Amino acid sequence: KPIVTVIGAGLAGSEAAFQAAEQGVEVHLYEMRKEKKTPAHKTDQFAELVCSNSLRANQITNAVGLLKEEMRQLSSVIMSAADHNSVPAGGALAVDRENFSKEITERVRNHPNITVHDEEVTEIPKEGIVIIASGPLTSDALAEDIKSFNEDEGLYFYDAAAPIIEKDSIDMDKVYLKSRYDKGEAAYLNCPMTKEEFTTFYEALITAEVAPLKEFEKEKFFEGCMPIEVMAKRGEKTMLFGPLKPVGLEDPKTGKRPYAVVQLRQDNAAGSLYNIVGFQTHLKWGEQKRVFQMIPGLENAQIVRYGVMHRNTFMNSPKLLEPTYQTKKRPSLFFAGQMTGVEGYVESAASGLVAGLNAARLAKGEEPVIFPETTQMGSMAHYITHTDGKHFQPMNANFGIMPALPNRIKDKKERYEALAGRALADLEEFKEAKGL
Ligand code: FAD
Fold it and tell me: Residue 35 class from Cβ within 10 Å (0-12 exposed, 13-18 middle, 19+ buried)?
């Protein structure tokens, strides 16, 4: 049997290994977490979610929702596990993180074509067809080897995780259950703030002490996962247009819109844990307790996991990669996941799906495929390989990176519907043409 090696059993690597195995090739999957942890992962389970338990919007009129649907059409193991283990989250798809990872681990480990090696890989294998999906927290030795293979086109920035609190410690008389604009099932616990409460909180947040940044050379934040204190420092109003936006969250007790609202999202199936939405942070732990307990309803909040910040690594894909996720320098070497500059759990898994399919095709002597740009999967691959390499930043799924429709549709919802319809139709045709 032809062989494919996959390094890393995260979101991208698990999907890549599964897809390649389903194509009938023999897969060797390497994962180090049984013997070596990363600064963010807590378990040795595959596809562990290191921060939020939300895979974001589920409707196809949202780009990441469309991406999910495309993945379902390609029998994604990540999507199947997500759908089996969802927890209420309004219009979003959030999951019970433990059961989600457990299902993926079992399906990947038990696949007849996959052999798992529980060990760290310290350099890029020189021979054979290889997918590197070791993620933003790639171990140091491998990161060094990737850096030298890529002739130093690796960049650094920071990511941050939000605190998780115990539901029992929330003052339920002060908070209320509601989804923004009452969309879907009421899923969020909302902590309303008056102007005075907001101002006091804001002042405390911008003056709170942050943990020192040691090992990093340069401070560079990615907009999508900015620490709350950094966002706050941009101006008193910034958070009110971001995570503390009160619109559509009128307090049912008063019928009035609070000045600001902090939202809490269910974090596990049992509903015993909630995370503070958008509160990724680098504040010192004691400071997190002091400042976040100023939020109405959280006065006695029990923080079970504090917010943390970590290094995140991505490479200069426009210079280094093909839209098949093959490297330009060595076509038998693929990269997948966050390190290619796709940003997010679902995006990482989707890139793994494409890399896995393509590595298997190459192993079987078939041509790798480039997904149509009119699909989210294809437009992501196109984006990371065709933008200006000088200013390259990681990218989430979005409609803006897809080719425009032949006729301009003014209404946003109708336009997104048309883009999604075209994507799914083109994907169907593409699957047939390529025998996927
Ligand atoms: P990972 O899921 O990290 O998988 C990489 C795997 O490779 C890991 O299992 C690791 O143990 C293994 N590995 C590493 N080095 C080696 C080696 N040398 N040998 C063998 N195995 C190795 N995205 C979101 O959508 N929402 C969020 O809330 C979010 N929060 C984040 C918070 C943090 C702190 C970080 C760092 C990232 C966050 N991201 C978030 C971004 C991104 O979606 C995740 O990092 C995602 O897990 C990336 O998937 P991946 O497959 O590329 O990497």
Answer: exposed
